Amino acid sequence: MIDAHQHFWHYxxxxxxWITDKLQVLKRDFLPEELGRILERNGVSGxxxxxxxxxxxxxxxxxxxxxxxxxxxxxxxxIDLEAFNLSEKLHAYLPFSKLKGxxxxxxxxxxxxxxxxPGFQKGLDVIFERGYTYDLLVFPHQLDGAxxxxxxxxxxxxxxxxxxxxxxxxxxxxSWKEKMQSFGEFPHVYGKLSGMVTEHxxxxxxxxxxxxxxxxxxxVFGEDRLMFGSDWPVCLLAGTYEEVKGVVELFLEGFSPExxxxxxxxxxxxxxxx
Length: 274
Hints:
Largest sheet: 8 strands, parallel
Structural class: alpha/beta
Mean pLDDT: 97
Family: Belongs to the metallo-dependent hydrolases superfamily.
Low-confidence stretches: none
CATH topology: TIM Barrel
Pfam family, one: Amidohydro_2
Shape: globular
Organism: Lunatimonas lonarensis
CATH superfamily: Metal-dependent hydrolases
Distance between the termini: 12 Å
CATH class: Alpha Beta
Number of strands: 8
Keywords: Hydrolase
Protein name: L-fuconolactone hydrolase
């Protein structure tokens, strides 16, 4: 089993402005020693560490952790895609085989078309030429820009994080589902079954509440383009690691062992070249 989406950090408020007082439980260090015990307890053999801060030292921090902890199979870092010396920065990462791709916290950008900025698109072109993947962290209202990006790079490996964060707490599904269905025709785009519990009411959700959204993801991406991600430690706002994993376990109960193996491990291994 592979956890295709989790985070580490040494907490410093200046580095994580998105961790507001409402997210008090996240205002501490979260490091591999803690997660390693959780993964072992849950039968998860490896993970992908994803950036949570937007500066170059974040990528180096995650790569150092990956070097020291074999269960961290891959890193999705951050890089300034609009930097004038982007190619030079990427060249410096060549020795780091565990660096698999990059992500920008697009959900925090006020402009819903931020991803379509010419400089950003040019940067994407550069990282895709170098063989890296890209994680799309967007809200539903930003999916139009994501879709155009997918069309602009018809062979580049991209994955939508956290189901694009539909309004699960309010039962909003129809407009989200319509937008998501557009991605089904692009075999180079995957979806992560992650980040769901924090989009619901944190203290009153039930595993069955997520089934309509998970069913949509299966309809859109199919068994070969879905992967599990815990979103630990952010998930702790609304549930334990075991509870988050249990949501996907419930959804996959009716599928064959082959399909379950793909979602739990094989698809992440293939997408991120783990």
